[in-house]
Amino acid sequence: MVMRLPRPVFCSLQMVTDVIAQRQRGGNAAFFNGIAAEWRQRVQDYDTHGGSPQHVAAWPAIQPRRNTFLNLYLSPATDSVQAPVLQDMRRRHGLNYCPACGEPGKPNTLDHYLPKTIYPHFCITPLNLFPMCDACQELKDTKIGDAANPRFFLHPYFDVFVANQVLELVIAAPYDTPTFRLGTHPGLTGPQTALVTCHVRELHIEQRFTGYFTGQYVRLLRQARLLRDSNQDVRAVLTGFRDAIAPVEVNVWDHIFYSATVANADLMDYLADGPLPAFR
Ligand SMILES: [Zn+2]
């Protein structure tokens, strides 16, 4: 599931200053000099309000020059200020999970939290960019929010509460063929619950990861059988699995799965002493 990311090492305000400085000899110098102060202010506002579309307005006056901004992102010259920054953010993030959905693997695209077509002036703003998997990016597309929920998506740099577990899995009997129900964590506030609910719904997270839970559960039954056969304490070992993952990231699917297992006393009784199905 989601993970909190540290802020980019690249300064978003400095990026504006450097890009404008690099354009002083080109045909767009007058345009960029004319908007420089307001562009910087808007990037500052983004930082202040955590990229929230409720507080970070679009900039209608620059829409006629939208492509001038988009070209900074889509076709940066190799010696441009932004090219190495974008390359670094796209390739050298060191992530092994998609920060939006938790899918294992190196996320290989950069998402614009506020879409670049609507907010072209944030198309190279590091605070507006983070790695994402292809499936999430396709589903997110240019969505932002709607009247009922102005913000659909968690922001990995600013939604600091995602450092805590945000989803809770319930594994329901019968335990040889259980059902799985994914919900928001009861520790969230009302607004946090609404935001996480939108994020999960819009990225189809429950549908995409049901198969993961099913496969993980089959492995859990095998683990229980092997632990019993080798006279190990099933409860202690499974609790250890959960606790070994927690310091790394509480919202990875492994942790959500083992938390659900360990928290379910009936299931733990079943795994330790119940009639396990034959190996599949
Ligand atoms: Zn994803």
Level of helix content? 40-55%
Largest sheet: 2 strands, antiparallel
CA distance, first residue to last residue = 28 Å
Tell me the structural class: mainly alpha
Number of self-contained structural domains: 2
Name the bound molecules.
Answer: zinc ion
Mean pLDDT: 94
Q: What gyration radius follows from the Cα positions, in whole Å?
A: 23 Å
User: What is the ordering of alpha helices and beta strands?
Assistant: HHHHEEHEEHHHHH
Query: Could you tell me the number of beta strands?
Result: 4
What does this structure look like?
This protein has about 280 residues and is mostly helical. The protein has two domains: about 10-140, no CATH class; about 165-195 and about 205-275, no CATH class. About 45% of the residues lie in helices and about 5% in strands. It has ten helices and four strands, in the order ααααββαββααααα. The protein has helices at about 10-20, 30-50, 65-75, 80-90, 135-140, 190-200, 205-230, 235-245, 255-265, 265-275, and strands at about 110, 130, 165-170, 180-185. Strands 1-2 form a two-stranded antiparallel sheet. Strands 3-4 form a two-stranded antiparallel sheet. A hairpin with a 6-residue loop joins strand 3 and strand 4 (about 180-185). It is elongated, with a radius of gyration of 23 Å. Zinc ion binds near residues 101 and 133.
